[in-house]
């Protein structure tokens, strides 16, 4: 589904990603861990198409497409979804309007008929219920005045509504209490399936108790320095990132 | 004094005097005469005056605008019926319709009123109770330095009168619809409106201005508002005049202690529009909210002016004006805040934001803060906005193509002001107008 080869990227003059290699197959959940400043969020943003980062080297293939050549909206239409660490507030557009516009934009891209209002409302209702969200939040402006937890839940709601193939969750656990974390994890787990893949970016192992990954990668100094199964996360939790220091690659 | 420009209005005045003068009480004839005299002395403002530097009203002096003396019978109306129907927001609202400056009973509908509410039209009231408004009319709207207030004073024939007794809470909004119906000659109308709220009373007023599509006309409106202690007025104004119209309106507000005045101004129409609101905060713990949204394109000019006089301590004022300007449109915002020496603990916030969608659109913005007290908090900010890049990315990353995301963010910028309205029917209407204007699908 996703093949990242020797990916280098920089923001202004600082090189942040220094040769990432990663293969994600359908049905898999990959966790990317690492200390602050290791490049985790940059990787997520580069995949989503953020223009603040310049890719200087390497290749990313997604579902047979050269991902780096695709527009931001095309990536989304082709099933790539990023759940933001800091979701943006957009005063003046209701959540409901935003969701419907997104669904219809993707349908239009795929040359499918637009969603019927009744179908949309039905889908929205069931997803709201799963995430324990009140329907009044849909009349409010996108993320405006939402608490940290509400914003994260809203990201998962968008994911559930858009049904992506590959979801990148950027620090979705930050700022969540344990109850909110469970709800968010349940939302993710409900979407797990043989046709869908996840990249879960996180600083802490805690989230991985609830979203159990197939693979864990440790990012440091802009490279993946260690890969393993879920036990690697447990080891990191116990030992911290200190064991990476001797390699001298940390920034 | 520029005699030629004012002559046609003087002639109209004399014609009114001759035809209607004997029906009017002496105090009114004197007042209107003083208005005319002052208007003739001042003449139409020129761009040499600081307050009119960006707004050239020469177009008003190059054409004759005529006030119909008597109301035409319904059969002679052209677009008024359609316009009245389009302006309708909610059938339950009390509705007073004015056509070319005069009350049109056949389009109006005043529902059941609570005791202590007087809701009528000025022309009728002056005929039935000629002495009743002598101490109210003209009390706020001083025309010494205001030529257009003087002109309105000289020529007004009708308007609304709302008087609410102490403690009355009126739930049903009052909808005032001012229609200009095209005529052989360009129409001038001079609505004069009076609102007076007693202690602790509370009403909502919605003012709509519309006219025959494409017609050239001139509306010169004056509204005088008095709020007694703890009274609360939500005042909405929707200016959807014809694209060739001239709209110059002045709203004078006097607020006693603990009263609240909220003005929401939405301007879309007019070749030239100027909306001036002057609030005198004449008591402690007064709250004043002035919000505005103007959306103009082509060669439209929209001039928004606010003046807030913080005369007493412990008052709050909040202002948010937003403009969206396309093509060669020109916007003017002037926000004056005057904090008098007495007015300690004043809290005044003012913000003016404009989105320029074309390189040829222009906004002139001028906050004027005069502060003569030392313990106050006054902030003002003016931004010429660009769309938020992070929001644009966010929308696009959900699959929304860039051009659509752009439109959505422009809509969002405007809708933010619309959401401040509390009348649901108005909010829905404006939302639909904004979406359609930006080629966005309806809600």
Task: Please tell me about this protein's structure.
The complex is a heterodimer of chains A (251) and B (443). Chain A has one domain (2-247): P-loop containing nucleotide triphosphate hydrolases (Rossmann fold), CATH 3.40.50. In chain A, helix 5 (148-162) runs parallel beside helix 6. The longest helix of chain A is centred in the middle third of the chain and has 15 residues, at 95-109. The mean pLDDT of chain A is 91. Chain A is 33% helix and 28% strand. Chain A is built from 7 helices and 12 strands. Chain B has 443 residues and is of the alpha/beta class. Chain B has 2 domains: 3-282, no CATH class; 386-409 and 426-443, no CATH class. Chain B contains 9 helices and 20 strands. In chain B, the strands form 2 sheets. In chain B, strands 2-1-5-8-10-12-14-16-18-20 form a 10-stranded mixed β-sheet, with helices on one face. In chain B, strands 3, 4, 6, 7, 9, 11, 13, 15, 17 and 19 form a 10-stranded mixed β-sheet that branches. In chain B, a hairpin with a 2-residue loop joins strand 1 and strand 2. The mean pLDDT of chain B is 94. The chains are: A alpha/beta (251), B alpha/beta (443). At the A-B interface, helix 2, strand 7 and helix 3 of A face helix 7 and helix 8 of B.
